[in-house]
Amino acid sequence: MDLRHLNYFLVLAEELHFGRAAERLHISQPPLSRMIQLIENDLGVLLFERTKRSVILTPAGQDFLQDAKQMILQMQTVKKRLAIYGQGETGTLRIGYVGAVMHSNLPALLAEFTKSHPHINLQFEELPNHKLVHELNNGTLDAAFVRTWLHPEKLEEKLILSEKFVAVLPITHSLSAKKKISVQELANEQFITFTRECGPTIFDSFLVLCSNAGFTPQISHHASQLNSVLRLVESGFGISLLPENVENGYALQLKFIPLENTEETVPLIMLNRKENPNPALLHLQNHLVKYSSNEKEISEKSVI
């Protein structure tokens, strides 16, 4: 028995007249009579008492009427819910990330997204770059955020934002009182950096900054975690060049000083499968692309 059968029964139960019910259903009387007989045969009970002058519900028919109304209501509710899901307004997005992206505007952007799409649940998992690519390819993740261009096959990469580098110095450093600093002033410093394996784009951009300033950096320590880099700098083992937003969330004895006349930036990149069936993903992409476009417009105006 499907919804069409239930609808035929409900209309006849309301009209208690085959002619009027058939007219409402835009069919002739014989098909309606056959349909009601099929329903009764399926249920094994008479639902209507028929005479030449009247049609009335039997006790079984009256009982079934309440069930039929409830089933119709439930199915309408399900259809509405699934329609919303099909539009991507509800559901779950499984998001992976490398730890470094948490020191950017991404958490705030995702928080704004959940406010504007309260029925989309975000689930997070922190993984290294190669595992994020693997989980995206096998469908375990819907999207991933990284700090380096990976150019994986079968995945899309989209630049969400770019951050400038800042010099990170111990608060006791001789240059820590400056408002801005040039990379050339750091030529004789010992540097603490991420390993290239952890952040190829950050590491390569760091080398380009130093090369453009006319020197090859002296790297005293490589670290795999941002916290390790910052604590080593704080303890006086060297300095670092890092994305500007790493300052947020830390209360260390450090100074974060903007660099003068530099073009190198650190990207925040969103990865996802090219053929992802999750409709909620499009809403997240549009949300982040809108932010990216606004940031680009603001940046262009500031240059003018």
UniProtKB/TrEMBL annotation:
InterPro entries: LysR_HTH_N, LysR_subst-bd, WH-like_DNA-bd_sf, WH_DNA-bd_sf. GO terms for cellular component: protein-DNA complex. One of its GO terms (molecular function) is DNA binding. Residues 1-58 form the HTH lysR-type domain. Keywords: DNA-binding, Transcription, Transcription regulation. SUPFAM superfamilies: Periplasmic binding protein-like II (SSF53850), Winged helix' DNA-binding domain (SSF46785). Belongs to the LysR transcriptional regulatory family. This is Als operon regulatory protein AlsR. The lineage of its organism: Bacteria, Pseudomonadati, Bacteroidota, Sphingobacteriia, Sphingobacteriales.
